């Protein structure tokens, strides 16, 4: 597997890239090659007096390269220019990445729906599964909040094809997972149709699959606002990562907030592993 790790060479990015436990978790799920990429903003150019951003970023990536190579990965570095989320998506397709990783300082103390703009835009547009890795917010030398990326997974499902695709990620996440909580929220907006099968039974079927892989699993069925209830379960079970699926969105809808997956990405304390629709071939 190939992972694309985005960095702006900040302390928050360094926390993700240089954490040995995080790197070990990526290795356990099958990542063998890491593409380190940093994006130089389009409005910064080589002609600016006294500034050589691209060379400085290459040197920064070289420092990270040695750490990751020592952890047993093959590493390629990329310095690109443009709008960060667009260039990261484009590079993910070019190198055929299996997932992308981006660090996020998490919740703002003033506005709990705000995360970094790059992480937010990637969550809306990502072409490959995206791991939003939470990093301490109010710290000069921050560390990741949940080192064991996939040890305890909270999987949220509405039994849609998007959720089923996210559940399929357990085929590789299971190699680093020990515990899982499966949750379904019956929204007041639901029409009451569950395909003739009780939600608890449907969760139990998925739980049986995980138990057969040696993952200790519990299930929860709740009623209420999906995002609020998922976040309530997260607060109760403190997972390493919340696993959710996302839908393909139009350009106009990408500008809007409000989907359950976006609420979870913006407000969860845990890491979030977001699985998008398959990319076009």
From TrEMBL:
TM region(s), chain numbering: none
Gene3D superfamilies: HUPs
Domain of life per record: Archaea
Annotated UspA domain residues: 3-132, 150-276
InterPro entries linked to this entry: Rossmann-like_a/b/a_fold, Universal_stress_UspA, UspA
SUPFAM superfamilies: Adenine nucleotide alpha hydrolases-like (SSF52402)
Family classification: Belongs to the universal stress protein A family.
Protein name, UniProt field: Universal stress protein
């Amino acid at each position: 597997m190939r992972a694309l790790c985005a960095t702006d060479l900040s302390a928050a990015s360094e926390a993700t890239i240089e954490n040995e436990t995080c790197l070990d978790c990526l290795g356990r799920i099958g990542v063998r090659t890491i593409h380190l990429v940093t994006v130089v903003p389009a409005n910064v150019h080589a002609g600016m007096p006294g500034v050589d951003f691209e060379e400085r970023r290459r040197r920064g990536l070289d420092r990270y390269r040695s750490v990751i190579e020592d952890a047993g990965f093959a590493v390629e570095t990329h310095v690109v220019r443009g709008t960060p989320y667009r260039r990261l998506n484009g590079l993910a397709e070019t190198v055929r990445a299996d997932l992308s990783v981006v660090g996020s300082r998490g919740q703002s103390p003033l506005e709990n729906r705000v995360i970094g703009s790059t992480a937010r835009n990637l969550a809306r547009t990502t072409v490959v599964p995206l791991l939003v890795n939470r990093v301490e917010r109010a710290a000069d030398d921050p560390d990741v909040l949940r080192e064991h990326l996939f040890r305890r997974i909270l999987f949220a499902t509405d039994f849609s094809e998007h959720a089923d695709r996210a559940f399929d990620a357990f085929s590789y996440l299971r190699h680093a997972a020990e515990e899982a909580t499966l949750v379904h929220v019956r929204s007041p907006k639901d029409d009451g149709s569950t395909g003739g099968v009780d939600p608890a039974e449907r969760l139990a079927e998925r739980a049986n699959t995980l138990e057969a892989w040696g993952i200790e699993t519990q299930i929860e069925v709740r009623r209420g606002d999906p995002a609020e209830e998922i976040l309530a379960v997260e607060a109760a079970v403190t997972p390493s990562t919340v696993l959710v699926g996302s839908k393909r969105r139009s350009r106009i809808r990408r500008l809007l907030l409000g989907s359950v997956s976006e609420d979870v990405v913006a407000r969860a304390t845990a890491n979030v592993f977001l699985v998008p629709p398959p990319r076009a071939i």
